[in-house]
């Protein structure tokens, strides 16, 4: 989702359809559709959200295939405009609204194609989040599976070693693991992380409502996961400015800015949008007390949190 990220990927020819014209519903159409969405959410027993690059454009991170997207401009021989760095980027209204929906019990699982780390930095629980393409702030021990969430971007991609080693000690008196830490960011031909993909697949099959936000749904297998919900009798709602390959399968397609849709949705559900108070990492969606699993770094902390991943 950034120019730096795109530049670090290997050359690849098939980047999907880029630069499709944006479509805007009228304000009245948007309101009516969001009202329908709010009712679907109230009736849902298990809603899964699928997020793409379009939820981060409002905070200065360009998307890929929009009119000013990274790949769109690349096809024209132009460079995209990038308003912020990954470290300085703040979660958008949509990121924080999703956290509010999760805390209210509406969002059961979140599947993201984004690598900007904003879901994690917003405080969304990592145990109900699949980051299918990796996270610029996360490195993982290739030996024991521990993941470290850093304050700064890792700096390497393609599952390559970062130059650091795992310092986790499983039991007192034993030596640290010392396994090599590797980037979690995928390159084009890398396989998706098994754990994240399996959990995303399971959640998509279980869901009775799939809400897709800011994604053209072009990249497989991520983009096809909402169809698993549809095939099992659930409904799919797509919020995107450009047409997507799965519009024909959607119960509703809302063509509007994602932040505007989420703002109206939260109002209709009677929910406040949480205020962002700096990078916060939450391991578990079931804390023993309110937000007790949230971890905020001090100014000198290199690690926000680490979590054991069973691969």
Automatic annotation (TrEMBL):
Main location: nucleus
InterPro entries: DHS-like_NAD/FAD-binding_dom (IPR029035), NAD-dep_sirtuin_deacylases (IPR050134), Sirtuin (IPR003000), Ssirtuin_cat_dom (IPR026590)
Catalytic site: 133
UniProt-annotated binding residues for Zn(2+): 141, 144, 166, 177
Subcellular location: Chromosome, Telomere; Endoplasmic reticulum; Nucleus
Gene Ontology terms describing biological process: DNA damage response; negative regulation of transcription by RNA polymerase II
Start and end residues of each Deacetylase sirtuin-type domain: 27-272
EC number: 2.3.1.286
Keyword tags: Acetylation, Acyltransferase, Chromatin regulator, Chromosome, Developmental protein, DNA damage, DNA-binding, Endoplasmic reticulum, Glycosyltransferase, Isopeptide bond, Metal-binding, NAD, Nucleotidyltransferase, Nucleus, Phosphoprotein, RNA-binding, Telomere, Transferase, Ubl conjugation, Zinc
Any one GO CC term of the record: endoplasmic reticulum
Catalysed transformations (reactions): L-lysyl-[protein] + NAD(+) = N(6)-(ADP-D-ribosyl)-L-lysyl-[protein] + nicotinamide + H(+); L-arginyl-[protein] + NAD(+) = N(omega)-(ADP-D-ribosyl)-L-arginyl-[protein] + nicotinamide + H(+); N(6)-hexadecanoyl-L-lysyl-[protein] + NAD(+) + H2O = 2''-O-hexadecanoyl-ADP-D-ribose + nicotinamide + L-lysyl-[protein]; N(6)-acetyl-L-lysyl-[protein] + NAD(+) + H2O = 2''-O-acetyl-ADP-D-ribose + nicotinamide + L-lysyl-[protein]
Domain of life per record: Eukaryota
Keyword tRNA processing attached: no
Any GO MF annotation of the entry: nucleotidyltransferase activity
Oligomer and partners: Homodimer; binds to nucleosomes and DNA ends as a homodimer. Interacts with RELA; interferes with RELA binding to target DNA. Interacts with SMARCA5; promoting recruitment of SMARCA5/SNF2H to double-strand breaks (DSBs) sites. Interacts with the mTORC2 complex; preventing the ability of SIRT6 to deacetylate FOXO1. Interacts with the CLOCK-BMAL1 complex; recruited by the CLOCK-BMAL1 complex to regulate expression of clock-controlled genes. Interacts with CSNK2A2; preventing CSNK2A2 localization to the nucleus.
Similarity section: Belongs to the sirtuin family. Class IV subfamily.
PANTHER family named in the record: NAD-DEPENDENT PROTEIN DEACYLASE SIRTUIN-5, MITOCHONDRIAL-RELATED (PTHR11085), NAD-DEPENDENT PROTEIN DEACYLASE SIRTUIN-6 (PTHR11085:SF12)
Protein name: NAD-dependent protein deacylase sirtuin-6
Phylogenetic lineage: Eukaryota, Metazoa, Chordata, Craniata, Vertebrata
């Amino acid at each position: 989702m950034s120019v730096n990220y795109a530049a670090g990927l290997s050359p690849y020819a098939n980047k999907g359809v880029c630069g499709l014209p944006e479509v805007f519903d009228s304000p009245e159409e948007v309101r009516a559709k969001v009202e329908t969405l709010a009712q679907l959410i109230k009736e849902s027993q298990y809603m899964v959200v699928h997020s793409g690059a379009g939820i981060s454009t409002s905070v200065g991170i360009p998307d890929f295939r929009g009119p000013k997207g990274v790949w769109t401009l690349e096809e024209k021989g132009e460079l995209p405009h990038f308003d912020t760095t990954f470290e300085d980027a703040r979660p958008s209204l949509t990121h924080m609204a999703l956290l509010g929906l999760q805390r209210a019990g509406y969002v059961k699982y979140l599947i993201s194609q984004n690598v900007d780390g904003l879901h994690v930095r917003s405080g969304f629980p990592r145990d109900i989040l699949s980051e299918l393409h990796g996270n610029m702030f996360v490195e993982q021990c290739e030996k024991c599976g521990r993941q470290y969430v850093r304050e700064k971007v890792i700096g390497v991609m393609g599952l390559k070693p970062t130059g650091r080693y795992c310092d986790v000690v499983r039991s007192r008196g034993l030596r640290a693991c010392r396994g090599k830490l590797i980037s979690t960011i995928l390159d084009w031909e890398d396989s998706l992380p098994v754990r994240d993909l399996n959990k995303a697949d399971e959640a998509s099959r279980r869901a009775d409502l799939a809400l897709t936000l800011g994604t053209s749904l072009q990249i497989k297998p991520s983009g096809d996961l909402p169809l698993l919900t549809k095939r099992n009798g659930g409904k799919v709602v797509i919020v995107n400015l450009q047409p997507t390959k799965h519009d024909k399968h959607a119960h509703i397609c809302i063509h509007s800015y994602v932040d505007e849709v989420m703002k109206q949705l939260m109002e209709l559900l009677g929910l406040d949008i949480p205020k962002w108070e700096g990078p916060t990492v939450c391991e578990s969606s079931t804390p023993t007390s309110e937000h007790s699993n949230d971890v905020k770094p001090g100014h000198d902390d290199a690690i926000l949190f680490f979590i054991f991943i069973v691969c």
